[in-house]
Each structure stands twice: as C-alpha cells, then as structure tokens.
C-alpha cells in the first residue's frame, strides 16, 4: 500500500511568516493599546491596559489651548490637497514634454532635473528661505504650495518612465485626426497614465501630511499649524505630558494617509509595477 507523503514545507513557511509578521506588528499593536493607558501605566511592561481610558481621545482632541485638532486637521487637508493637485498637474505636463516632445537641450535639462534628486534638502534650505522671505511669503502656505507647481523631480521621472511605455502609434493616430499636442496629452496620455498618477497622488499626500520640517521653518502662527506641528506643540504646552492623549492623537493623525493608501492600493501597485516597461 502506497503511503501518501504530507508536505510540511508550506506549513512551516507560513508559520515562520506569521511569527515574523506578528513581531513586526507588535510595535503598532503596543501603540494602539497605549492610547488607552494612563501615563504611569505606560512604564509597565504590559500590553493589555489594566484600565481602559477611553477619554484619552476626546481629552487629547481638546487638549491644546484655544484650538482643537479639528482646526489642525483642516489646515493639513487644505494644504495637502492643494500640493497634491499641483503635483499631479505640473508633473504630468512636464513628463509629457520630456517623453513625447522634441526641443533644444532636452536631454541636458532632463539630466539636470535628475541631478536635483541627489541634492539634500538642507543644501537649498537657506537660499529658499531667503528667496521666500524677499517675497514676503514667510508665515504663509505659499512656500509649501508653490514649489509643488514645479512638479517635483521624482514625480516627473516616474511619469516619464510610464509615458515612454505608451505606444507612440496612439499619438500618430490622434495627429491624423487633427488632435493637438495638448489634446494628445489630455485625451490619450492622461487617461492611460492613471495608475502612475494615483502613485504620485499617494506619495505627494503622504509626504506632505507627515512633513514637519517645512511648516516648522515657514509657519509662525498657531492658527496655520498642521497636524505634525500640533503634535509637537502638544508636548510643549504641558509640564507633565499626558502620553496617552498624545499617542491617541498621533494614532488619529495617521488615519488619512493609511486610508488613502488602502483605498488606492490597486492603482498604486499597478503604477509601481508597470513604470518603466516598454509597450
């Protein structure tokens, strides 16, 4: 009688993956449970709260003087929606020009644009601040929004690689039908680059939402602060920090980018996977 072998390798592999996944998820799990703990209990080596302090969320939301976190949430949303829209529009236009048009010094300009990716932001910080100060833009959102109208070198490079994978025969067919270059961009290229555009939107929103350094440099008024600045001020305004409330607000602050990523995950993976592939 022939004995049937039981293949244990997939079971062992999945068990190892589950164990390592739990180890990687443990800090997040601790963070979630810590939002329901008191400050003295956070020093104890326990995961499960002894007493569930649900009031950490409403108390943390209203902890800052004169302003609730609703105010800072709206500031971050308005700022990041504006920068995301500008990034998508300007990066797609510039990328279309580099990928489809022919003009003098095209390759040199594209190379110079890529070189800007190698410059640390700290190198250009002082010249940018001096320029924006001469424009009287300090303590406004303009230093954070206007640079997004330049497209961003990384976003332009990402879209150029994607557009190069779109067959040029579509452009030629559109030209025969009397379509202009802008018509080709708007009617043909833009719809076909939707996965890459969603990728640009996700990166732009997440990077802008978590940006702390930019608002710290250019914003002085509390009424213009974004969520990261509000979390920092949360620590400054209390002599004894209520860490449970602070952790609760930090957890609430990451919900918008996480939600956007999961809702647009399909297009994001498609945009990353197909970027650079030739048609």
From TrEMBL:
Q: Which sequence ranges are marked TM in the entry?
A: 12-33, 81-101, 108-129, 141-163, 184-209, 242-264
Question: Which UniProt keywords are listed?
Answer: Cell membrane, Membrane, Transmembrane, Transmembrane helix, Transport
Membrane topology, from the record: Multi-pass membrane protein
Any one Pfam family here would be: BPD_transp_1
Domain ABC transmembrane type-1: where? 73-264
Q: Report which superkingdom the organism of origin falls in.
A: Bacteria
Its main localization is membrane
Per UniProt, subcellular location reads as:
Cell membrane
- The family this protein is said to belong to: Belongs to the binding-protein-dependent transport system permease family.
For this entry, the protein name equals Carbohydrate ABC transporter permease
The scientific name of the source species is: Paenibacillus chartarius
